[in-house]
Protein 1
Amino acid sequence: MTRKQRRFTFIIGIGAVLALALVLILTALSEKIIYFYDPSDINLEHKAKAGQKIRIGGLVEEDSVKRGEAGLVQFNVTDTQEKLQVRYIGILPDLFREGQGVVVEGALDEQGIFIASTVLAKHDENYISKEVAESLKEKGVWQGENE
Amino acid sequence: MIGAYKGDSRLMGTALINAPITLLLISFSFFTLMYAYVTSDFSVKNVWENSHSLQPILYRATGTWGNHEGSMLLWVLILAIFAGLVALFGKSLPLKLRANVLGVQAWVLALFLLFILLTSNPFERLVNVPFEGEDLNPILQDIGLAIHPPLLYVGYVGFSLTFAFAVAALIDGKLDAAWARWVRPWTLLAWVFLTAGIAMGSYWAYYELGWGGWWFWDPVENASFMPWLSGTALLHSALVMEKRSALKIWTVLLAIITFSLSLLGTFLVRSGVLTSVHAFATDPERGLFILAILVFFIGGSLFLFALRSNQLQAGGIFAPISREGALVFNNLMLTTATISVLSGTLYPLILEALTGDKISVGAPYFNPTFGLLMLPVILVMPLGPLLAWKRGDIVGVFQRVFALSLFVICATAIAYGFLYDGPWLAPLGLGLAIWAMVGAFAELQLRAGFFNVPLGKAVQRLFKLPGSMWGTAFAHFGLGVTLLGIVSVTAYEQENIVVMKPGQQAEISGYTIVYKGNVPRQYANYISEDSRFDILRGGNVITEMAPSKRFYTTRKSPTSESAIYHAGFSQLYIALGEREDQGGMIVRIWWKPLISLIWIGTIFMVLGGCFSLVDRRYRYAVPKLAKQKKEDITDAKD
């Protein structure tokens, strides 16, 4: 092989790997991402199908937290206009409170109840999830200090 | 503080003395802040917000960098330390290169000092001095805070020096094997610290957050992981450049990219554009400022690169199957992996800007893409060091590792036999890990000539092998060990969530866990309620575990502390949920087989890095003449 040919195969090889990686990245990005919605998106605009993995953000509705057998917790997530019933089995974060911001990850079941696999609360007194803050700002019920 | 800044302005003249002076002044301001923390001087706003006089002294001291302003000060302190090191110990560097390196480093330093002065002054005063501080975020009150940020920052910031070397070489237009030899130890140093920092952070998150996970693909974790990936690539490409004078342009580009990724990481963490467990309380002004710095350095250096790269002559050629070929492959895959992590990290930002959709990208994206890209790297890893430079003999290499391959295939098959109930991929993953671990020592074994020469002589030879060879073996072995831990915990982890009342028990993986009840305790700045569990195996109590719930009185915030029992390399992990109305406790118990190996592997990687570093330093001491000779030879080859 001449130097030119060698360089050519070299570049082809690199190009092939990069192209393959690009395809891999793009397919994964289109399929494996998790959308973030607020309860209005779900109830009014039906943005998510049952079984699709999504995140919901909002406030834990006052007096909505109920505990069942074997660590089952049930509560409503609200954006003050619409609310969504959430069920979760497991350990809630230390800063999980009624009236506070929360993000839940999971999927809707056939009855429209959200089965959560993860519950994230803010982990600092001064911190609230950016998505929740923005969603609440849109609804005009943001009580934080900034803006 | 002002003094430090003034000292820095003078440094623009690139004089060598100014770097140590800057270092002195910045150290002075850093230790002043630390003094304010330790003595609980609440007239300083930063101290008041993040400290409490009742905290143990360790957390009062480490609280210095447990907040945005203080950690930025640590950041620039480390920048200054690196500049000082080059100024004081870089005597073997050509004066021009050294001055240029220090100049570039000073520019980075100056802009970040300006950033601190304008947007995040740690010494802001309070007019009415409060009696007591607001306490440090409880999650940060841990030994992890003492170790993790300094290690990580040394790694992050250490790449600034590599960057400075690259830019200096571009300014100078002189780029040769000697340059690679000077850069590599610094890169290695930064890499060693970054590796340790990431591993420490991962372990800290693992035991402190109580989620039982050791890696979350959180944007901030990615931010530190991307420079690690490209830094690893840089280590390997600089090797090619040093030994064979090839891949010059690529190595310089990689040096620029690595530091750019460090800066990008700083931007992502400080600006709050991404939601993350690490997010500092942020304001947009800071984000914009760092973005400006980022654009300045990346844009500037890439512009310079575009101007100068065609002036740098291409180096030696090599066949695709050769040591260089293998290293190029390593670089290609690592870079692609970096791109895949970068895309996943930035995609939510881009999508939100374009469509307004809010998304998160997590493990379902990262695991398959990243895993698939790493697979071939680890497969090739043991073979690389066995190939000869320039033109390798793949058949010969396969003959040499034939016994090894056979061994690995057998081990995989045996794993299939025993672990039939796990996922089918797991034994393959275990086989791959063993391949990497055993293969890592193949080079040492072959060079020492075990089985061919008498044992005593082989051992003798073994210890005469250069440190860098030991370094490679250890680092590659470490990666295999980490992989072993990852595969085993991913495939064979067991989890049990139960509600327990005192006296009740739960089972997991042959262990019986008996809940005995709670014991309240009072500490200086928090109250704690320890839940006590007896751990039984085969009817005998082997240990007691006591996870707890804490309540920090000043911040009025509760936290949970998990408990871990080490059984060899495996762990039993207990995290507490809240108390139920009928007196039950929600308890989450994990059995995590071989999970400790994940971090033990990184210790080997760090050790490997240190071995290589020692080897380099040895080479530094080699008389100049020898070095000169070597350069002549490599130049002649070009």
Protein 2
Amino acid sequence: MLSQNSLLKRTWPMLVQSMEAHRKPRWLPVAKSKIYRIPKRPVIPEEERLELMRLHNNYKTQMRSIRRFYHEEMIKERSSRESASSEMSKRIEAEEWVKCVELNDSWNKQVAAEREERRKHEVAALEEYALKRMEALDKLKEAKIAKAAEEIRKQKELSKTFITPETIDAAIDHAIANPVDYNFAIDLKGNKYEGRDTQITRNQGKQEKAASANA
Amino acid sequence: MPFMKGKAPIRRTLNYLNAGRLVLKDKIKIFSVAYNIIGQNNQGAKDFVFWYLPQIQYKNPDVQVATLKNLTPSPFIKCYFEDGRKILVDVDNKSKEDILEHLIKTVGKSKAVLEQEAIAAEKKDNPANFGIGCERPCICEIYGQVPCPGVVPLPKFMRGKYRNATD
């Protein structure tokens, strides 16, 4: 922010360049000593007036023609200069534009080629990936089928031993003839005694110990 | 993006913005970048937008810089001139440095032009200038310079009255 003082200082020299005579300010009235002074009208003889008018007219006409001549010349010169410079700049610009477009086209072409190459690779990779997945899926299916076939074969073999209405009597007879007892007991040492009615001798463990000691 | 974490906030520093090298030609009015945020071929364009677009906008305050995100199959940069011409730059699978170099070569002002403009700008308002219409009307306002004789009389050894005195 410029201060007022600095602004004054900046503009002061621009405004006041020349020395001026001291003048009466506009708002003061006519000086006392000049109140009744009436300036005399200048008296110019008719001949002189005509002569002066002729001279003035001549001067004005000549000056006007000179001024107009220089003015027109300046305009002409300026227009010619402008057109030349603008044509020059336009030509330079057009050349530059052509150069830039050429450069850009070559760049774009190169990028397009690279992209095509990349796209090809990508498509190939995608294809490979899809094929791999399909193969894996096929393998899985095959394995499943093989497993199922194996199961069927096993079951078929087992089916020979199945109990059917025809063989049920024989099976019952066989079961009655060979009873199976799943009961068992465990003592503190972890020995397993199978069967519900198995006889357990008390000193069986001691005897074993003695045997091991003897050995 | 956190305010002051990582290396990204450097984009907001004045030094970084001033270091931008791409000053577009005067006739370019719009600079648009179209890119996607996924895909390796978009990485360069994405980085370009992230790192260089602030510099470009700072260096070209009168150019409209637009980004079109996720609206294109492949990334590109398009510049619109004031007389309706357009220039399209394909930036598919290019690094951000490559893109910047190419743009400087095609749509940026050349080094010579930039230097000329810098010189012209410097002449206009050099803070060292003084006189009517400048920042200071007289060199005597600077501390350490000889004050104007109208304000403070010159030292005696500089004044003719004393220098040329004959006794």
Protein 3
Amino acid sequence: MNAEIPSRVQPTPNAVSAPYWEACARGELSLQHCNGCQQFQFYPRTICSHCGGTDLAWQVVSGSGRVKSFTVVRRGISKAYAAPYVVALIELKEGPSMMSTIVGSEPEVVAIGASVQVGFEAWSEDIQMPVFSLT
Amino acid sequence: MSGSALRGQVAIVGAADTDVGVLPGRTPMELCVEAALAAIADAGLDKSDVDGLITCNAMAQPMLYHAEAAAEYMQIFPRYCFAAGAGGGTTFSVIHHAMSAIATGMADVIVVSMADAMRSGLTREQAMLVQASTGHPEFEQPYGVTVPAYYALIAQAHMAEFGTTEAQFAGIAVACREHASRNPTAQMRDPITVADVLESRLIADPLHLLDCSLVSDGGSAVVLMSAERAADTAHAPVYILGAGEGHSHEHISAARSLTTSAAKEAGERAFAMAGLGPAEMDFAQLYDCFTPTVMVELEDLGFCAKGEGGAFVDSGALLPGGALPVNTHGGLLSHCHPGNPGSMFALTESVWQLRGSCGERQVAGATNALVHAQGGIMSSHAALVLGKEVG
């Protein structure tokens, strides 16, 4: 290990997930939608996890949802993450849940059930990470 | 097929732990072999009697062929040999497999031995790998989610849904410590109070330091054989009356529910095989990597109704002498937690409790017990019902 300033964990997009990250880079949250059963899914897969179909299309979604659960991390995972910070499970309006964080508020005001809206934060030159703010 | 044909077919006839806690200089393989040979001796057997070996890999000494390496070290030559990996749930998943292997004649005498040196043996790179092995690398890890944070999500959801309090989670840590204070081998033996837990520093809200399990070195092993053959071994056999598993997800962000886990299916399947229910258990060993797991497991395994885990803890049931003593050795919270092998110590403790050899911490009249383990973030669950009699 060298003594460089550590960077946050970076996702490595693959062929299936690349459209998700490309949408993030445009400032849009995009999910796979199944043309067979009309349901959304997250994370991206080669198949629909609901019906097993393969007719999946990317669709930009509202980016609104609610806090399903959250915690305030008091002891950060590395020096790249300045504690305290919020880790939150977000239930999107369209159905799927995703891990994320809440930014722009003191951790103490975050609550389960609170309404949130997606935004994006640069994680690297290439990656814009979806993060959420209380609305 | 329900698998009920396995009921009472297999018995645990040997059990042994190494020292646990902080064991600098001891490699996981040494601990694994020490535990295995001690369990074989406890059973009154010779290593040449063993024809099956199951281990789990060690974070501090990973090997591609772990079980084969352990067999080689001991110079035993099994016809059934594998290393398993389902995190903390590995322990009882492999017991389930071993039961099936004995019943179908794949092996006659199986040693299950697991050890690791999470406390003293990890290099910095291995420690980072342990941290990075949890969570989805693309959709969870970038947010800086620590292992306690994943479990804190479950605790918060339980609090919001059922009004469970931090003090009730703390009560679980207190109960485990009360048991550990009666166990000379436990890593942490000084009694603690709910206030001690709540005043220990916050790690990931609502989890305080004392809501989190230990980091330990240690190894533990059991010997299994058919109930028929077990009739004339050194100690009274402990029969495996039921076994069940449930696997619901890998990543907590993809879980069906945060507050109901696949411990429900694992418990229902194990109890159905045993023909017994939660009320007939004299004690239970429940996977306690963090206090909220025990809260959810008490409910999912049927010891109390969903949402009533907090009140059940408040009743004092989990304490020594309580209605359902939980983690009579001290659990991962206070006895030891060397990673994947953690629940082995709950199993050996259960064997000793059912033999009646636990001294000061003996559960009076213990006849039947439930042991449960989970791996991942409440992902992979396995439960066993153990008994002194096949009945």
